[in-house]
Amino acid sequence: MDTEKIRGWFEARRAQLVGTLPVIVFFIALFWIVQLGFGDQYLLAVSPFTTLFETRLKKYNPPSQYARFFLVSALALAGARLAVTNLALCVVVNLAMPFALVFMRSSQLNPRRYFPYTMLFAFLQLRPANLVSNLATQAAVLVACCATLSLGLLLAGTLRHRAREARSRLHECVLRLADALDRVAERGVDEVLRSELLDLRRDFAVLAYSAREDSTAPPRTRNLLDMLATLAQRTAYLTGNSDWVDAHRRRHAALLAQLSALTRELDTVIDARASKSHRATLARRTEALLANLSVDEPRFRIFCQSYLNMLLLILRTADDRRQRVWRMSAAHAARTVLYRKRPTLDSFEMRFSVRCGIVLAVSCSVNLLFPVDHLYWYVLHAYLLLQPFPNESSRRMRTRMAGTALGCVFVHAVALLNLGWAGVMVLGMVLVAPLYAARPGTVTSAFFATAYAVTMASVSIDDGYATMMRLASLALAVVTVALVNRLVLPTSDRRLFAADVRQLFSMVRRGWDLVRTTLDERVDTVVSSERLLHFQMVHTQAVELLGAISATGEKNAEIAEVARYKDAAERMLFCLWEISCELEQLELLVRLGAVRDGEREAFVAIVKLAEMNCDPERFGTSVNVVTPLIMDLESEDLRYVLRQYVDRARELRRAVDEARGALVERPRYLDEVRHP
Q1: What digits encode the pLDDT tens for the residues 230-249?
Q2: pTM
């Protein structure tokens, strides 16, 4: 048994090493391009570009991505050059750049998108002389690095066919959705299937969101993923109410089977294997089913209408080169950015941008003021220790201290061998492999990083001095990052949960704004899809944070208050998700013309009343005023969706009141400092 475990461990390490082989080869190639072409004083640029290669290797890279490498690298170079001019500019630029590189790129749902370019900006400042005296050479180094990066990714993309990999995931999505509809037809929506449908909705949202945020798929594939995520959301809509009973399942089992069959046939349509006539035939069958739809139960009728309408949209656009790729207008794009990015100190992006800016300003200023050999390791350590979430920073402090100490012992042992320049270079290249194969943030990663850095530094300085500087700079970085995380805009799970919840309330309000906009003008499906995906991702994170808070509530007095109200919090999050479903269905009904001309005034009054009561303190307090207005509407489906919204608003108000505000109130600063 022990032998099998050892063999399994070695197999896992071998597989990990083989998996990172392209990254290792890229690092070594770029290392020698810079070393032989420009000199060892410019080698600090190699690591950021290797990180860029590693992050983009498994993703689809459109032509614009290669242009972005050059443009953002030029921005980082300009910022770094300005920062090393004097101390005042160093502080100002290092405080400002994270808002361009962190706030605009990262999000609470994808927090590490900032890392490669911000790393490049920080590392360019490590040797100020390169920027002051040899700016042209440093610019040439970046051009060479960008060209090598582009060439490496083009080669990798040709060999691995990243665009096809994204398309292959579509088939799995379609078949899972068809299977779910089959199970609904067979046994209705029981608790097991309800959980499966919600999981399916979450998985689709993650896949579509990742494809959009990280460019893991071509534009047309991203469009399809967005539409399929909306289909999954509309299927999950069936789980939100007890109106769906077994009698409905028996009555509509044949219709569900038809929906499943149509969905399953999408597998051939989206793969471009189907002829135009096949696509047209499938679209006609969908149109006929929609035209002849006759369902009494409101929730199921609304589900079928919305599902079939989205199915038609997919059939009309899937792999049709004449159809334009979804793109937002400038106005809708600006609204969507504001929907997702909140320039307030309550938002995750802003809080982390401030902490990152302060850490860079302090460490880079020290490096600029004191021209001590290899003091730049202080900046390097501080940047790598600072993580989006303070708990991860604390963990990395422990692992990096242990790994650095072990790495220094290793270097002292190697020094006894008296290796020459060639021997040190060979050893450095050997250490690169396990360095990139190790998981970032572990003791193993820190060990090999230290072993590599100090070994390479021993070529130009004494290994004892290098070891002392490595340990001293790490200690200084640990103190800096710990103080900033603890004292500057601390971010605990409790605060993140409250911020998520308040953001969900804000997104509900903006959902009503989208409904109002749809009443007066045409709104592309991509707008509602983008908002729906972001709402789902924030909601998913809030659910995960609630679980983490509940698990540690007994140990941490600062978050125990939320843990005590777990049941109320779960009801609140469920109601918020249900409300987002109702708003998405409502926006579609308005788009399809459910609001008659004579009802516009009453409907606008409903929207205004809803918008006025979308903050946590007032949500659901004035719903009784809306009820008479709803009953004046002609469309039964419109009345049903609005009544569901009103019911959920009342339930949500009760959940927040039961918790006495513990779920939505921001924690006090002193509480977060005492209980991080």
Answers
A1: 888 878 777 765 555 566 66
A2: 0.80
